[in-house]
Amino acid sequence: MTIAEMIVREIDKRGYKNKWVAEQVGIKEVTFSLKLKKDRFTAAELVRIGILFDLDLNMFKGSTTLEEAE
Question: Can you give the pLDDT at residue 1?
């Protein structure tokens, strides 16, 4: 599972909309959608997303698959 897939899963699980998440993270909605599509986030963006969702950021560390991250 890619980092973008993990983020989408959290968005769906929590019932959020991409627009709301993008606003909270400080990214334009269109840019956020492209970042999800291309799986391209900066470290700072991942930190802000992790804080927003109260995630353990170690799940992103050194892996692009959830199975490897756990």
Answer: 81
